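During the second year of the project, the team shifted from modelling isolated chains to modelling whole assemblies. The rationale, set out in the original proposal, was that interfaces cannot be judged from single-chain predictions alone. As a representative example for this report, we include one of the complexes processed in the last quarter. Its constituent sequences, exactly as entered into the pipeline, are reproduced here:
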Amino acid sequence: MKVLPTHPLRLPRLRTYVPKPTDPKIFWFNSERTDIVQEVVRRIMERYEADESVELIVNDAAYHEMRRLETRTDEGASRGLEYWRSVIRRVGRTSWEGKHETLREITERMAYDVAGNFDPRVYRFAARVVPSLLTGVMKPSKLVHTVLSRGATLEDLVRGEGPIEKIRRLQNKGTIVLVPTHSSNLDSLAIAWVLFREGLSPAVYGAGKNLFTNPIISFFMHNLGAYRVDRRIKAQLYKDVLKTYSSILIERGYHSLFFPGGTRSRSGAIERHLKLGLAGTGVEAFARNQSQGIHRPVYFVPATINYALVLEAETLIDDHLKESGRARYIIEDDEFSRIERWIAFFNRLQNFETACVIRFAEPMDPFCNPVDDDGCSLAPDGRRIDPASYVTWRGSRAVDYARDAAYTRDLGQAIAAKYISETVIMATQLVAHVIFRRLVRATPGLDLFSRLRYRGEIAIPMDELLPELGRARDALAELERAGRVHLSPLLRRASPDRFFERALAAWDGYHQRPLARRTGGALIMEDPNLILFYQNRLRDFAIEIAGSHPADQVAARDIATMETLR
Amino acid sequence: MSLAVGIVGGGGFGRALALAAARNGRRVVLWSRQPRDFQSTQIRTTTELGDLEATEVIFMAVPSPHVRGLAEELGHHLDGSHLIAHVSRGLVGEDLLTLSELLRRVTPVRRIGVLAGPLVAAGLAEGQPGGGIVGTMFPEVAMAVREAIGGPRLRIYTTDDVLGAELASAFVGMVGVALGYAKAAGYGPATLAVLATRAMAEAVRIGQARGAEERTFAGLAGTGDLIAAVADDGRPEIALGRALFEGMSVTEAALRTGGAYVEGVAIAQQVVEYAHRHGIETPIATAMTKLIRGGANPASLVAELMTRPARRE
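Output from the structure prediction step:
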């Protein structure tokens, strides 16, 4: 794999593709790319037009880039270093015009590095073949059959839920900004597949540059509308370029997808504190359009991606628990890059009924108002209101960065709240939670890390565990009826002993360490770390599903207030 | 011509805000259940909430139990262009929902803030030199409040820690009752200082659990307001605390203090319940609930607080 090029590959084309009127907006992307990049450059130059700090901005970019490149030894890095050194030499000596010209040059370079590509041929190929290939990995004996039948098995494994019909209508009225939870690198594939299957338009999305290091994934990412987001680049100018690029795409009606949690949830918990980052540009895009008299709505659609098994669970939780967790911000050597783990993963999943549920929430406008079926914003009393009023101040409509940052913060909270209420609890998570609660009960007063040393020491009698599972499931079902959370079909329907068996079977054989094993009439907890990872999804509900046993309630409170890094 | 300033509430604070805004040359539309006469051409009173539609910034100056109902009704007439600043020291329910969070839920308005700090109705109405703090994420809310009531005699500071400002303000309301009680019991400045400081430590713990910033509690919304309470600036909480010491029930005490609704009374119980659920220690708030329920022996309450093990501050 290492010998293959990792920079974006594009397929040659003899004739320019002319999009049909019925094609989704993204099919126009290639014809607009240069224009979009030039618009990014124009806006950045406008922002720093009268600014005395142009030299500072350029030096900041050069400094951060040189620091980053100095840690690498490849030829590209040394070329890059040489370039940035020349920039620093130049910008100190040149005139006002020269400084601005340098800024323009760097901005354009960055904007082209970010800009993606969309090749309809790759899209059609991927839509047809990728599900079949995934299914093939899951069950090689069915490969021929599934290629012909276009991935029927995947259909059963990955389930889409929520107001899909409404979202389908809204995508013709405005720009959709899809903001799902992020727990696995499989997320982009799973959601892209569900969008396609449900007749929803493909979305442009900012993909971490680490995803582009795998040449095959990179090829698909790059040609399916992804733009590259390199979190290792710290320069302010780069962040400005990314935000401007993203805003322009939303302004122009490109449905966009962002993972507002930034990186995959290391702890397995539902993401709580969202800064939104690029997703916040949806607010700016709306305001900018309004200020120019363009009344194109922007709809935020939160979604949860819920897995029974998480492909990279072991690496993620280990990373979360390590002090060094934050330093290893970008993981390139996890289960995602190892094909044998993929095979084990899908082999486990094929026996698990629905393995992944993607649940879409009700769409909202950039100001957290719900919208009706026609895409109109609704006040709490059900009255239609004009979303433009939120960007109006003393009669004029304008972009205001401080105000829009405040709206974005509100939006982050609203999305985080939706993440909780739209979470679909899987059997593996509930089983892990009840086991973990037992661990906490058995170790009163200990901190998390001391608890995690209890490997193979906590035995739970099965005749106690199964009724506890039943009670916890019933309490969750009660929360589901109140609209507070959702249950997977298996968890909703099956008896405790059945969903317990399924959960154990799913873990067994996929994770390299057993999570729990049965001896005699008891269950012995073997891997507290992974148990913690899966149970973390239920942290927000721990107190409410604790039941009446005082020890359980104390344990649940401990779980709910547990310190987590992320 | 700038839009009028809206005020919901014809109580002492609402009237003081109206006078302050009129002093700044602003037109005011004040909603009150009863018609009020201000003898000012700039202040128009109304009993129709819909009349506030044509205002830019609206001050909510009603006790917290009335905010939900009034805001829901007011919300029918508002959209995203309006700004709201509330002045309440109240919190809603056991989750300690702040008024700005409530206003966000029941109205379409998003540009919301809280006006907190050592502001009392009399001082505001008379134009005594002083200051307050606006907690808001939106610069235009701070600007509108400043333009409405700020000026050479009233400094308006700002913070974007809205939650911190609201929680600090609510806690000072609660501590005010405790201070009134302790003063009536004859305790001296040193005792009051310990009571006030440790009560703020509880406030900070609760605030951090809810996501507020510690430093906000040390600013005008917290410590600044608390100093005014200790100095007894005539706020109703102190009077209510005194009445409780004299053995009156909360209802009788409220009548003594002119029938004003004192937020601090309800908050103690809410705080204790929240703290219990989140495993936070709040001994002073707990003592307050006993005191408010009545029948508590002051000496035993003090003994209970004083015999707790003292730890690092």
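The mean pLDDT of chain B is 92. Chain B touches chain A at residues 56, 72, 75-76, 79-81, 104-108, 110-111, 137-140, 160, 277-279 (CB under 8 Å).
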